[in-house]
Amino acid sequence: MPASRRLATAALALAPFAFALPAAAQDGQPVRLIVGYAAGGPVDQGARLFAPALSKELGMPVMVENKTGANATIAGSEVVRSKPDGMTLWFAASPTITISPNVMKKMPFDPGKDLLPVAPVLSYYNVLVINKDLPYQKLSDLIQYAKANPHKVTYGSAGMGGSNHLSGELFADRSGTKLSHIPYKGNAPAMTDVIGGQLTMMFDIIGSARTYISGGKVRALAVTSPQRNPSLPNVPTVAESGLDGFDVGGWYGVYAPVGTPADLVDRLNKAVTAAVNQPEMKARLEEMGYELWTGAPRLLADRGTKERAMWATVTKGIEIE
Questions:
Q1: Three-state secondary-structure class, residue 229
Q2: Are strands 249-257 and 218-223 parallel, antiparallel or unpaired?
């Protein structure tokens, strides 16, 4: 085989997906990976961990862009309006797909019709953390105080209608307490105020909260998974702590604009799956408390449909602008 042909073959082996992308890719423009939450929060952290791995599989740069606000629907709308050429993807957290359509007065797009599922990435659960200087050592201590002091316990979230907002609503309902919800534009600023004492507590994704817990900046009282999380083995579940059946989690997935060619979606799906399963990436995600969840686009579509129906019951009576 001539040397020039061997070099061309090697280049394609290193960048097996780039040839399927548009001319912009050949000009060195990066794939835009849109994130709907603030920098430093769990979704942003997940995307920035994932982007280099995806870049390696695509053989081209992948750049994370934060488009915050409106329960991440601004980010989703950006992708919906984008050219369906594989150069703009949404690294989405499940609440915008499954919860927001049930609680937003005017949802700017239909997740089931206006977006094309590419690939699932991972599943996650939350952990309830409190300011470290508060006296509560167990979840039952916090519940006892909240019952005796209605609305005195404050909790933050990434915004109205988000999974940690509704985790708080469900927790209040199951525990028979009245809490005060303070919405933020992302998990990171809410966590900052828990650390600073402006908030009593919040439900945060285990993957991003672990650093604050291990660093002694907040105290973990319970995880929202059915079983204890391997990355926080000494933290009991909410169910263990007295609220039977409490099981609240979510997931991340990658979406593209409707109209993206099927062969390109297939290539992107393979790239996302390979990226998540890179040994270092896989180990890092599991260390952070995430569970890998990969497979065909249909898995992402079906889970979105199923959980939209589930949250419709839980969120009945809740409406946000």
A1: coil
A2: unpaired
Torsion of CA 126, 167, 242, 199, to 10 degrees: 80
Q: What is the DSSP string of 238-272?
A: TTTTT-TT---EEEEEEEEETT--HHHHHHHHHHH
**Residue-by-residue pLDDT tens, the chain, 321 positions:** 544 444 333 334 444 555 456 655 556 789 999 999 888 888 998 999 999 999 999 999 999 999 998 889 999 999 999 999 999 999 999 989 999 999 888 999 999 999 999 999 999 899 999 999 999 999 999 999 999 999 999 999 987 777 788 889 889 989 999 999 999 888 889 999 999 999 999 999 898 899 999 999 999 999 999 899 988 999 999 999 999 988 888 899 999 999 999 999 999 999 999 999 999 999 998 888 888 999 999 999 999 999 899 888 878 877 776
> What one-character DSSP code corresponds to residue 228?
-
Distance CA 47, CA 111 (A): 20
DSSP string for 280-293: HHHHHHHHTT-EE-
Query: How far does the chain reach from its first CA to its final CA, in angstroms?
Result: 64
Which tokens belong to 240? 């263990």
